[in-house]
Amino acid sequence: MGDRQVFQASTTAPVNIAVIKYWGKRDPKLNLPTNSSLSVTLSQLDLRTHTTASCSSSFSSPDSLTLNGSPQDVSSARTQACLRELRQLRRQLEDSDTKLPKLSEMPLRIVSENNFPTAAGLASSAAGFAALVRVIADLYQLSSTPTELSRIARQGSGSACRSLFGGYVAWEKGTEADGSDSVAVEVAPVSHWPEMRALILVVSAEKKGVSSTSGMQATVATSTLFPERAERTVPKRMEEMKKAILDRDFDTFGKVTMRDSNSFHATCLDTDPPIFYMNDISRAAVRMVEEINQAAGKVIAAYTFDAGPNAVIYYLAENEHAVAGLFKNILGSKDGWAGSRGSAVQSNSEAQFNA
Ligand code: DP6
């Protein structure tokens, strides 16, 4: 009976949105970044991947993974790197206590679901790899800390290392050649600045044209603006951003967020051939934020864009009406998907957002 037993664990991990962007790898194999980055995870938006992992010697080999019901390729170097490291940690436990079941030798069945429509075009690899690493660590009863697990999740997808924590999280680029110090650390928990809010303006639900991985490689290889960004601009902004968060200074938080998004997209435009992630609707969102801030006489809203046209707008709860209210009025309410605290709206120009 013992060897037919099925061992199982479940977990969820959240999507995170960077306010200082990771863009560029100094070591593509170990997924080591050229610069540190910083993100915010808002439970308010409640965008998560839920993952269940089970293992049993009765399962047939090899390992398997399904996402939203579709089988995924587990043989990719990234997934393999994560599974290898986790099995190695489990093996150490099994070697030190021979009574433990040999889970490290059993095939894994991993089942993942995103609680947001894949069609929303939101980056899900961050939540996906964070959930995958966390759930197997739980299944294997590893005592690793979130920072230790972030080193493993980083090898799945860079941004995933920041999703091992909630709240305000830095991914320190590290200096070691083996990547042992390229890990995520908490800057502050959500409770430190609970008034922070975000809304996502889904400009396009289509899959991005140039993947982050190939886009950033091209930028590193060709952009002359890039070294300035990686070596001087970002290190300074990391310090400004950490201080702004610790001081709960939205003015600086917002300014640095917007400037860093623009700096990242400038290096994309400076890539040869150029990469365009923002489109006309993205630029209209930038203008709207500018107008909201001008009308308020200070920065009360901050936009940021990842490797696609969708905008994330940060604001404080006290400005809900001025920021989210205005976007809702302009776009008009329509059926869509809802987060834990809000409803989705959709405009007739295919824009939709979740507040
Ligand atoms: C623009 O983490 O998706 O969202 O490490 O190649 O998987 P890989 O890249 P990924 O890149 C995310 C880039 C970004 C900025 C960010 O999240 O920091």
UniProtKB/TrEMBL annotation:
UniProt domain Diphosphomevalonate decarboxylase-like N-terminal: residue ranges: 13-184
Enzyme Commission number(s): 4.1.1.33
Q: In which pathway does it act?
A: Isoprenoid biosynthesis; isopentenyl diphosphate biosynthesis via mevalonate pathway; isopentenyl diphosphate from (R)-mevalonate: step 3/3
The UniProt annotation puts the region (Disordered) at 53-73
Q: Which reaction does it catalyse?
A: (R)-5-diphosphomevalonate + ATP = isopentenyl diphosphate + ADP + phosphate + CO2
Q: A Pfam family in this protein?
A: MVD-like_N
Residue ranges occupied by any Mvd1 C-terminal domain in the UniProt entry: 198-355
**Is ATP-binding one of the keywords UniProt gives this record?**
yes
Q: Which of UniProt's keywords are assigned here?
A: ATP-binding, Lipid biosynthesis, Lipid metabolism, Lyase, Nucleotide-binding, Steroid biosynthesis, Steroid metabolism, Sterol biosynthesis, Sterol metabolism
| Annotated signal peptide | none
Q: Where is the composition biased (Low complexity)?
A: 53-66
Xref: InterPro entries: GHMP_kinase_C_sf, Mev_decarb, Mev_diP_decarb, MVD-like_N, Mvd1_C, Ribosomal_Su5_D2-typ_SF, Ribsml_uS5_D2-typ_fold_subgr
Gene Ontology terms for molecular function: diphosphomevalonate decarboxylase activity
**PANTHER family referenced in this protein's UniProt entry, alphabetically:** DIPHOSPHOMEVALONATE DECARBOXYLASE
Q: What is this protein called?
A: Diphosphomevalonate decarboxylase
**Annotated organism of origin:** Coniosporium apollinis
Upper lineage: Eukaryota, Fungi, Dikarya, Ascomycota, Pezizomycotina
